[in-house]
Amino acid sequence: MDNARRPHFGVLIVLFIGLFTLAGCAKMTNGTSNNPTSSVATSGTAKILTKADQQISHRQINAAIKTLKTADTSNTTVKNLLTGLHHYQKAATALNKNQLSVAKTYFNTLSNYQASTDASFNAAKTALIKEYQQVKQANSYYNTARDELSVHDLTAAKTNIDKLDKIPASHPVIKQLQKKTLAMKQAIMNYEASQSTSSGSESSTVTESDSSSSSATTSSSTSSSSASSTSDSSSADSSSTATSDATSSTSSTLTTKQVLSNFRAAAGVSFAQDDQFNVIKQTDKYYQIEVMHDSEDTDVTNLTDIYRYYPTSGRVTKQNSSTGEFE
User: Fold this and answer.
1) What integer pLDDT is reported at residue 58 of this predicted model?
2) Residues 192 and 199 sit within 8 Å (Cβ to Cβ)
3) In this structure, are residues 44 and 67 in contact, taking their beta carbons and an 8 Å threshold?
4) Which parts of the sequence are annotated with region: Disordered (predicted)?
């Protein structure tokens, strides 16, 4: 009986070993079958990133974002690059609209974003930040030239216009500002031409007066005696005149540039960058200032506002366009 049972145990052991071997082979087969799938997925992401990099290098940011969204967005590289491109897009949009106050926040975020190490993205980011700095500088030159022109400081205005023209037109906003200075240049030329004409007429008048001075010499001796008799009364008149001049001079100690600067600070109005300011009237109490607006909106009919600025009190009133009264 014992001899009959032994072969059965041997068979069981052989069967057990066989099953164990088959299970191991199946596991190994399954493991090796997953590797091709993983490598294919990795290869697909790499191709998408390569395509996106090419688009970024050509500043096709919207296209690059669409391309990256076709990849596995849970991939860290893809996710970080997408985030960086969104920051880039916001900053670029604000810059294209020349909204520098809005752009400042976006560019701070973009400058501080370091999560993506993509070379094409970082190169595009650096280029955009450089353009932002140039646009800021161009706006500064343009605004300064406009303000100086409004107070007839032509030399300073021309200096800033020249500085603006020297900035490389690497961004559309810079091109627009440089184009807008053409009107300033024409205004300066017209003003200089008018001054040249008036100075010519003044010089001819002086020549005529010089020719008549010889005839007036003979009468000067006779008038000298009468001049001495009236010296006492004229000195009294001059003292009273000096007093009135001193009183009026206190209201004219401010330069036009200072008046406009103080007016803008006291008005409590957010004026546009393209607004132009001119002092059109001055009294001992107030300055009357004309503000001209530059608007491309066809619905805007009133492009000029008139204000009165009282420097002593800092009060500002605005003319009602319907009634003409200052309120």
Assistant:
1) 92
2) no
3) no
4) 193-253
Cα separation, 160 vs 278, in Å, equals 19
Tell me the β-bridge partners of 326. Answer: 319
Residue 122 identity (one-letter amino acid): N
Question: What is the model's pLDDT at position 242?
Answer: 39
Tracing tokens 């037109």 back to the chain, one arrives at 169
Give the contacts of 239 (CB within 8 A, at least 6 positions apart): none
DSSP letter (8 states) at residue 189: H
- pLDDT at residue 305 in the model: 86
Instruction: Give the angle 150-184-148 at the CA atoms, nearest 5°.
Output: 30
Question: Do the Cβ atoms of 152 and 126 come closer than 8 Å?
Answer: no
Return d(Cα 162, Cα 236) in angstroms, integer: 53
User: Which residue has 């603006």 as its token pair?
Assistant: 164
- Give the helix, strand, coil percentages of the chain, each rounded to 5: 70, 10, 20
Q: How many helices (H) and strands (E) does the chain have?
A: 9, 4
Mean pLDDT by 10 residues, the chain (327 residues): 54 64 53 51 84 94 94 91 96 94 94 95 95 94 88 88 93 93 86 68 40 40 41 42 41 78 88 83 88 65 81 90 82
SS3 116: coil
Integer angstrom CA distances of residue 37 from 26, 48, 126, 249 = 18, 17, 38, 89
Kindly report the number of other CB atoms within 10 A of residue 253's CB atom: 8
> Nearest CA to 274 among 256, 298, 297, 292?
292
List, as one string, the DSSP characters of 59-106: T-HHHHHHHHTTS-TTSHHHHHHHHHHHHHHHHHHHHHTT-HHHHHHH
Closest CA to 51 of 74, 73, 68: 68
Cα dist from 197 to 93, 194, 293, whole Å: 48, 5, 31
Per-residue confidence (pLDDT) for residue 32, from 0 to 100: 44
**Continuous segment of H or E residues that includes residue 14:** helix 2-57
Measured CA to CA, the distance from residue 55 to residue 67 in angstroms comes to: 9
